[in-house]
Protein backbone atom coordinates (compact mmCIF):
# COMPACT_ATOMS: atom_id res chain seq x y z
CA UNK A 1 0.00 0.00 0.00
CA UNK A 2 2.89 2.38 0.77
CA UNK A 3 4.30 1.72 -2.74
CA UNK A 4 0.96 2.71 -4.27
CA UNK A 5 0.84 5.89 -2.20
CA UNK A 6 4.43 6.78 -3.05
CA UNK A 7 3.80 6.26 -6.77
CA UNK A 8 0.65 8.41 -6.59
CA UNK A 9 2.53 11.22 -4.86
CA UNK A 10 5.35 11.08 -7.44
CA UNK A 11 2.82 11.33 -10.29
CA UNK A 12 1.14 14.34 -8.67
CA UNK A 13 4.49 16.06 -8.12
CA UNK A 14 5.62 15.49 -11.70
CA UNK A 15 2.38 16.92 -13.08
CA UNK A 16 2.39 19.94 -10.76
CA UNK A 17 6.15 20.64 -10.81
CA UNK A 18 6.90 24.28 -11.66
CA UNK A 19 9.14 24.69 -14.68
CA UNK A 20 10.44 21.14 -14.33
CA UNK A 21 12.80 22.18 -11.52
CA UNK A 22 13.59 20.20 -8.39
CA UNK A 23 14.36 21.59 -4.97
CA UNK A 24 18.09 21.90 -4.43
CA UNK A 25 18.00 23.37 -0.95
CA UNK A 26 20.40 20.97 0.66
CA UNK A 27 20.21 17.81 2.74
CA UNK A 28 16.80 16.17 2.98
CA UNK A 29 15.41 16.25 6.51
CA UNK A 30 15.36 12.81 8.12
CA UNK A 31 12.53 12.88 10.67
CA UNK A 32 13.12 9.42 12.26
CA UNK A 33 9.82 9.62 14.14
CA UNK A 34 8.26 6.16 13.79
CA UNK A 35 7.53 5.92 17.52
CA UNK A 36 5.93 9.37 17.43
CA UNK A 37 3.69 8.28 14.55
CA UNK A 38 2.63 5.17 16.46
CA UNK A 39 1.92 7.12 19.67
CA UNK A 40 0.01 9.89 17.89
CA UNK A 41 -2.05 7.28 15.99
CA UNK A 42 -3.08 5.47 19.19
CA UNK A 43 -3.75 8.76 20.98
CA UNK A 44 -5.87 10.07 18.11
CA UNK A 45 -7.76 6.76 17.99
CA UNK A 46 -8.53 7.00 21.70
CA UNK A 47 -9.82 10.57 21.29
CA UNK A 48 -12.08 9.58 18.41
CA UNK A 49 -13.44 6.49 20.18
CA UNK A 50 -14.22 8.33 23.42
CA UNK A 51 -15.90 11.40 21.88
CA UNK A 52 -19.49 11.53 23.15
CA UNK A 53 -19.09 8.52 25.47
CA UNK A 54 -20.69 8.73 28.91
CA UNK A 55 -18.27 6.21 30.41
CA UNK A 56 -15.13 7.16 32.30
CA UNK A 57 -11.70 6.06 31.10
CA UNK A 58 -11.52 3.25 33.64
CA UNK A 59 -15.01 2.03 32.75
CA UNK A 60 -13.97 1.87 29.09
CA UNK A 61 -10.97 -0.27 29.98
CA UNK A 62 -13.24 -3.21 30.87
CA UNK A 63 -15.36 -3.01 27.72
CA UNK A 64 -14.50 -5.19 24.71
CA UNK A 65 -16.12 -2.74 22.27
CA UNK A 66 -13.62 -0.08 23.34
CA UNK A 67 -10.61 -2.22 22.37
CA UNK A 68 -12.17 -3.29 19.08
CA UNK A 69 -12.96 0.30 18.12
CA UNK A 70 -9.56 1.48 19.36
CA UNK A 71 -7.74 -1.12 17.23
CA UNK A 72 -9.56 -0.29 13.99
CA UNK A 73 -9.34 3.47 14.63
CA UNK A 74 -5.61 3.21 15.40
CA UNK A 75 -4.98 1.34 12.14
CA UNK A 76 -6.88 3.99 10.17
CA UNK A 77 -5.07 6.78 12.04
CA UNK A 78 -1.67 5.16 11.38
CA UNK A 79 -2.44 4.94 7.64
CA UNK A 80 -3.40 8.63 7.57
CA UNK A 81 -0.38 9.74 9.62
CA UNK A 82 1.96 7.82 7.33
CA UNK A 83 0.26 9.26 4.27
CA UNK A 84 1.04 12.76 5.58
CA UNK A 85 4.58 11.63 6.43
CA UNK A 86 5.29 10.23 2.95
CA UNK A 87 3.82 13.27 1.21
CA UNK A 88 5.97 15.63 3.26
CA UNK A 89 9.10 13.53 2.65
CA UNK A 90 8.54 13.74 -1.11
CA UNK A 91 7.76 17.46 -1.00
CA UNK A 92 10.95 18.11 0.99
CA UNK A 93 12.98 16.53 -1.82
CA UNK A 94 11.35 18.51 -4.63
CA UNK A 95 9.93 21.74 -3.15
CA UNK A 96 12.02 23.29 -0.40
CA UNK A 97 10.05 25.78 1.72
CA UNK A 98 12.64 28.55 1.26
CA UNK A 99 13.11 28.15 -2.49
CA UNK A 100 9.51 27.45 -3.54
CA UNK A 101 7.25 28.79 -0.73
CA UNK A 102 4.07 29.30 -2.79
CA UNK A 103 4.17 26.01 -4.78
CA UNK A 104 5.08 24.18 -1.57
CA UNK A 105 2.18 25.77 0.32
CA UNK A 106 -0.28 24.79 -2.42
CA UNK A 107 1.04 21.24 -2.71
CA UNK A 108 1.13 20.89 1.07
CA UNK A 109 -2.55 21.87 1.28
CA UNK A 110 -3.65 19.55 -1.52
CA UNK A 111 -1.49 16.50 -0.85
CA UNK A 112 -0.84 16.65 2.92
CA UNK A 113 -4.17 18.07 4.14
CA UNK A 114 -6.96 17.71 1.59
CA UNK A 115 -5.89 14.25 0.34
CA UNK A 116 -5.58 12.71 3.86
CA UNK A 117 -8.94 14.26 4.80
CA UNK A 118 -10.56 12.52 1.81
CA UNK A 119 -8.73 9.30 2.67
CA UNK A 120 -10.04 9.54 6.26
CA UNK A 121 -13.61 9.73 5.01
CA UNK A 122 -13.14 6.78 2.63
CA UNK A 123 -11.53 4.59 5.31
CA UNK A 124 -14.25 5.47 7.83
CA UNK A 125 -16.92 4.74 5.23
CA UNK A 126 -15.43 1.28 4.62
CA UNK A 127 -15.15 0.69 8.38
CA UNK A 128 -18.81 1.47 9.02
CA UNK A 129 -19.87 -0.48 5.95
CA UNK A 130 -17.98 -3.55 7.23
CA UNK A 131 -20.10 -3.50 10.40
CA UNK A 132 -23.36 -2.86 8.56
CA UNK A 133 -23.73 0.87 9.25
CA UNK A 134 -24.39 3.77 6.88
CA UNK A 135 -21.91 6.54 7.75
CA UNK A 136 -24.54 9.15 6.90
CA UNK A 137 -26.75 7.88 9.71
CA UNK A 138 -24.04 8.08 12.39
CA UNK A 139 -22.52 10.92 14.43
CA UNK A 140 -19.18 10.47 12.66
CA UNK A 141 -19.47 13.35 10.18
CA UNK A 142 -20.77 15.73 12.83
CA UNK A 143 -18.37 15.02 15.69
CA UNK A 144 -15.52 12.66 14.76
CA UNK A 145 -14.61 13.88 11.27
CA UNK A 146 -13.94 17.55 12.21
CA UNK A 147 -11.62 16.31 14.98
CA UNK A 148 -9.75 14.08 12.49
CA UNK A 149 -9.28 16.99 10.05
CA UNK A 150 -8.04 19.16 12.91
CA UNK A 151 -5.54 16.46 13.92
CA UNK A 152 -4.27 16.19 10.32
CA UNK A 153 -3.82 19.98 10.26
CA UNK A 154 -1.88 19.87 13.56
CA UNK A 155 0.29 17.09 12.15
CA UNK A 156 1.19 19.37 9.21
CA UNK A 157 2.11 22.14 11.67
CA UNK A 158 4.30 19.69 13.62
CA UNK A 159 6.26 18.67 10.51
CA UNK A 160 6.61 22.30 9.42
CA UNK A 161 8.08 23.25 12.81
CA UNK A 162 10.30 20.13 12.80
CA UNK A 163 11.53 21.00 9.29
CA UNK A 164 12.68 24.53 10.16
CA UNK A 165 14.16 23.38 13.47
CA UNK A 166 16.27 20.73 11.70
CA UNK A 167 17.31 23.23 9.00
CA UNK A 168 18.47 25.57 11.75
CA UNK A 169 20.40 22.71 13.41
CA UNK A 170 22.06 21.77 10.10
CA UNK A 171 23.07 25.39 9.47
CA UNK A 172 24.57 25.59 12.96
CA UNK A 173 26.50 22.35 12.43
CA UNK A 174 27.82 23.61 9.08
CA UNK A 175 28.95 26.88 10.63
CA UNK A 176 30.69 25.07 13.48
CA UNK A 177 32.43 22.51 11.27
CA UNK A 178 33.49 25.08 8.67
CA UNK A 179 35.39 27.34 11.06
CA UNK A 180 38.66 25.34 11.30
CA UNK A 181 38.43 24.30 7.65
CA UNK A 182 39.28 27.77 6.37
CA UNK A 183 42.91 27.27 7.33
CA UNK A 184 43.33 23.58 6.55
CA UNK A 185 41.53 22.99 3.23
CA UNK A 186 43.74 22.43 0.18
CA UNK A 187 43.71 25.01 -2.63
CA UNK A 188 42.79 24.54 -6.27
CA UNK A 189 40.59 21.48 -6.11
CA UNK A 190 39.55 19.89 -9.40
CA UNK A 191 36.33 18.40 -8.01
CA UNK A 192 33.75 19.67 -5.50
CA UNK A 193 31.33 17.41 -3.64
CA UNK A 194 27.81 18.79 -4.08
CA UNK A 195 24.28 17.60 -3.26
CA UNK A 196 21.11 17.22 -5.26
CA UNK A 197 18.24 15.93 -3.17
CA UNK A 198 19.63 12.97 -1.21
CA UNK A 199 22.52 12.37 -3.65
CA UNK A 200 26.15 13.47 -3.14
CA UNK A 201 27.78 14.16 -6.50
CA UNK A 202 31.42 14.87 -7.51
CA UNK A 203 31.26 17.95 -9.72
CA UNK A 204 34.25 19.03 -11.88
CA UNK A 205 35.33 22.58 -11.05
CA UNK A 206 35.64 23.32 -14.77
CA UNK A 207 31.85 23.01 -15.12
CA UNK A 208 31.13 25.58 -12.39
CA UNK A 209 29.92 28.95 -13.72
CA UNK A 210 29.43 30.58 -10.34
CA UNK A 211 28.74 29.82 -6.68
CA UNK A 212 26.21 31.94 -4.81
CA UNK A 213 24.57 32.35 -1.41
CA UNK A 214 20.77 32.42 -1.28
CA UNK A 215 18.25 31.97 1.51
CA UNK A 216 20.80 30.87 4.07
CA UNK A 217 22.36 28.19 1.80
CA UNK A 218 25.08 28.02 -0.85
CA UNK A 219 24.52 26.77 -4.39
CA UNK A 220 26.54 26.05 -7.51
CA UNK A 221 25.26 26.81 -11.00
CA UNK A 222 26.99 25.07 -13.87
CA UNK A 223 27.41 26.21 -17.46
CA UNK A 224 24.69 23.69 -18.36
CA UNK A 225 22.40 25.63 -15.95
CA UNK A 226 22.19 22.83 -13.43
CA UNK A 227 22.00 23.82 -9.75
CA UNK A 228 23.50 21.97 -6.79
CA UNK A 229 23.68 22.52 -3.04
CA UNK A 230 27.14 22.78 -1.48
CA UNK A 231 27.65 22.45 2.26
CA UNK A 232 30.77 24.62 2.62
CA UNK A 233 30.65 28.38 3.09
CA UNK A 234 31.80 30.67 0.29
CA UNK A 235 34.93 31.49 2.32
CA UNK A 236 35.86 27.80 2.43
CA UNK A 237 35.08 27.22 -1.26
CA UNK A 238 37.13 30.28 -2.21
CA UNK A 239 40.15 28.73 -0.46
CA UNK A 240 39.74 25.60 -2.60
CA UNK A 241 39.58 27.31 -6.01
CA UNK A 242 42.21 28.90 -8.22
CA UNK A 243 42.43 32.66 -7.72
CA UNK A 244 43.21 33.03 -11.43
CA UNK A 245 40.01 31.27 -12.44
CA UNK A 246 37.53 32.41 -9.75
CA UNK A 247 36.89 35.87 -8.30
CA UNK A 248 34.82 36.87 -5.24
CA UNK A 249 32.73 39.62 -6.85
CA UNK A 250 30.77 40.27 -3.64
CA UNK A 251 29.87 38.59 -0.36
CA UNK A 252 27.23 36.45 -2.07
CA UNK A 253 29.03 35.19 -5.19
CA UNK A 254 32.17 33.58 -6.61
CA UNK A 255 32.41 33.78 -10.41
CA UNK A 256 34.35 31.72 -12.95
CA UNK A 257 36.30 33.82 -15.47
CA UNK A 258 34.66 31.89 -18.31
CA UNK A 259 31.19 32.88 -17.05
CA UNK A 260 31.96 36.61 -17.28
CA UNK A 261 30.37 38.07 -20.44
CA UNK A 262 30.97 41.78 -19.87
CA UNK A 263 30.60 44.45 -17.19
CA UNK A 264 28.99 47.89 -17.15
CA UNK A 265 29.93 51.01 -15.21
CA UNK A 266 27.50 52.22 -12.57
CA UNK A 267 27.42 55.32 -10.41
CA UNK A 268 29.82 55.77 -7.50
CA UNK A 269 32.43 53.56 -9.18
CA UNK A 270 30.39 50.36 -8.94
CA UNK A 271 30.22 47.72 -11.69
CA UNK A 272 27.46 45.43 -12.91
CA UNK A 273 28.72 42.08 -14.15
CA UNK A 274 26.78 40.17 -16.80
CA UNK A 275 27.28 36.42 -16.41
CA UNK A 276 26.34 33.36 -18.42
CA UNK A 277 24.17 31.54 -17.57
CA UNK A 278 22.17 34.60 -16.41
CA UNK A 279 21.68 35.15 -12.69
CA UNK A 280 18.24 36.00 -11.30
CA UNK A 281 19.49 39.31 -9.84
CA UNK A 282 22.00 41.96 -11.00
CA UNK A 283 25.56 41.03 -10.01
CA UNK A 284 26.91 44.21 -8.44
CA UNK A 285 30.60 44.77 -7.68
CA UNK A 286 31.30 47.45 -5.10
CA UNK A 287 33.68 50.37 -5.66
CA UNK A 288 36.06 48.74 -3.18
CA UNK A 289 36.33 45.55 -5.26
CA UNK A 290 36.05 47.19 -8.71
CA UNK A 291 39.77 47.81 -9.30
CA UNK A 292 40.79 44.31 -8.17
CA UNK A 293 38.12 42.86 -10.47
CA UNK A 294 39.37 44.86 -13.48
CA UNK A 295 42.95 43.75 -12.77
CA UNK A 296 41.73 40.13 -12.55
CA UNK A 297 39.91 40.46 -15.88
CA UNK A 298 43.08 41.83 -17.56
CA UNK A 299 45.29 39.01 -16.26
TrEMBL record:
Residues 192-299 form the HTH LytTR-type domain. Signal peptide: none annotated. Pfam families: LytTR. GO terms for molecular function: DNA binding; phosphorelay response regulator activity. The keyword Endoplasmic reticulum does not apply. The keyword Zinc does not apply. Keywords: DNA-binding, Membrane, Transmembrane, Transmembrane helix. The chain crosses the membrane at residues 34-51, 71-88, 109-128, 148-165. PANTHER family: STAGE 0 SPORULATION PROTEIN A HOMOLOG (PTHR37299:SF1), TRANSCRIPTIONAL REGULATOR-RELATED (PTHR37299). This is LytTr DNA-binding region. The lineage of its organism: Bacteria, Pseudomonadati, Bacteroidota, Sphingobacteriia, Sphingobacteriales.
